[in-house]
Amino acid sequence: MPLQCRLLAVSLFILNFSLAAFPASGADASPAARLFSETAISPDGKRVAWIGPVDGSAATDASTDNLYVQDVEKAGATPTQINTKDFAKAATEGVAWSPDSRMLTFLCETAPAQSQVCVAAADGQSIRKLTDVKGYLADPAWSHDGKKVAFLFTENAPRKAGPLEAMTPETGVIESRIYEQRLAVVDVNTGTLRQISPLDMYVYEFDWSPDDKQFALTAAPGEGDANWYTAQLYRLPATGGALTSVYKPPLQMAVPRWSPDGKNIAFIAGIMSDEGSTGGDIFVIPAEGGNARNVTRFCLRSGSTAIQAWRALTSAPEKSRKSGKGPKPSSRRRKSRSRPMLYARR
Q1: Rounded to two decimals, what is the model's pTM?
Q2: For residue 260, which of 315, 322, 329 has the smallest C-alpha distance?
Q3: pLDDT of 120-163, one tens digit each?
Q4: What are the CB-based long-range contacts (under 8 Å, 24+) for 330-334?
């Protein structure tokens, strides 16, 4: 089955699963809402992972924090719970598939208010904890060779990161301290962990380069909640070291993504009220720096264009790209290893 057909089948599976919560009869009956906090389709399109309920579970049930995987091609397949054994009651978040579709990484709450990076086989036969740290963790992501997992880490943070999170009450001796969110990388086989971004920079988002040798990331110096509005685009070696500035936007920016050939970086830029309230246009800039091109300037509805952004860029004539003009829409579909950009304008 072609990959695009598999993705459509997965989408229909999720829709049917959600509609199953509605009562079959009773005109005045209210639908039983189901909360799916996350979903992720495997790279090969054969399985879907989600954090949320399964058939027969209530929306308020503790099972809504569990991680499940189901084969969407096998008739009669049933969901497999991934967080089992010692992790059976642990809340999960941040699920991501390995490039070969055999493994999952996610954050698992192994202690009250403390998550760790975990990995598990997609068949539910094994699960293990990769990290043993204290602080706030977010957004685990596999390297393309499947040997490492990168994630955001705020060591010893007393609360979750974000301007909308409740502040920790100050007691005892009042002191001022800045908790920087840094980029960390852990080896899947050995569990060796390194924080690789500078101590004085707060990292908001990141993306592995196609060759796994560097990262594209957005970051700003100082306190994270107050300085997101001035974040810039940087490159960082995968071994750590100094940041290399790529672009300083006039407005806010988010969702940096490498092109499949590693020569360009795409991002969304525009006026945004808060971190996570992403909206604007899609821009592309050479990874070495230079002029950022708006590739969705004339798109009235940018959602589908955003998903096809790199396909359109790679199929545009070389002459058009060198002239600085935006790529023409293309009906050709190309495989891309970059993660899709969900939307641009709102």
Answers
A1: 0.76
A2: 315
A3: 999 988 999 999 999 999 999 999 999 999 999 999 987 666 55
A4: 333/4, 333/308, 334/310
Backbone phi, then psi, for 141, in 5-degree steps? -145, 135
For tokens 């091109």, what's the residue? Answer: 293
Residue 346: both structure tokens together: 């709102």
Contact 213, 238 (CB under 8 A): yes
Q: Token pair for residue 167?
A: 């502040």
Task: Compute the distance between CA of residue 71 and CA of residue 81 in angstroms, rounded to an integer.
Answer: 12
Can you give the C-alpha Rg of the chain in angstroms?
Answer: 21
User: In this predicted model, what pLDDT tens digit does every residue of 223-277 receive, in sequence order?
Assistant: 878 898 999 999 999 999 999 999 999 999 999 999 999 999 999 999 888 788 8
| Identity of the residue numbered 288 | E
SS3 187: strand
The one-letter amino acid code at 223 reads E
Q: How far is the C-alpha of 178 from the C-alpha of 161, rounded, in Å?
A: 12
